[in-house]
Amino acid sequence: MATLFLVSACGGSNRNPEGSGGSGGDSLIQSAPVAPPAAAGPGIYTFGYEGAAGSILVPTPATDPRLIEIESYRKLAGAAPATYFIADVNNMAGTETLNMYRAIVTTDTGAQFEASNIGHLVDEWREAFSVDNAEDREKYNIGVNLNNDNMFYLKPGAKGTAILAAEGELDGSPSRVYVSPQGAMAEVEATKAAG
Fold this sequence. Notes:
This protein is an alpha+beta fold and about 200 residues long. The protein has a single domain, classed as Immunoglobulin-like (Sandwich), CATH 2.60.40. Strands 1-2-3-6-5-4-7-8 form an 8-stranded antiparallel barrel. Helix 1 runs antiparallel to helix 3. The radius of gyration is 25 Å and the shape is globular.
């Protein structure tokens, strides 16, 4: 035999009971509305982590001179356009080795866009070429070299530039930017630079 207990929750309110930190039994619980952050827009965002300082251009135009080889290879592979973020990192006063694991950008439309080191896309693009014939093997090896040239492990006492990317385009204008300078768990929010 089963016993059924019903508890009525009818007639409840958002009132603080006496002794619960409110001003009495009839006070309403009120919270201030939380406005979404204003869209900061594209541009340079700055961040710090464990003594290191950096800036990241969100987004970086595909026409940026630092992306010439990467964009040429993407087109050679017939791959879809990518969105790029270039981070300049000064680890001269830093205490940790940095790898610029990823950047996450939220937009004014509520979208979230995640980019990681360009090497992951170069690896995908490289698969367009077979290693079974000499012409494709040469194109494949260009991708290997491009990937190797863009690995990012920045020791304390050094400065460097990391290129992060993802397929597709940002949906909207950047509103917040987060970077992970040292692996997935080391995330900091970057702030829009003045000017």
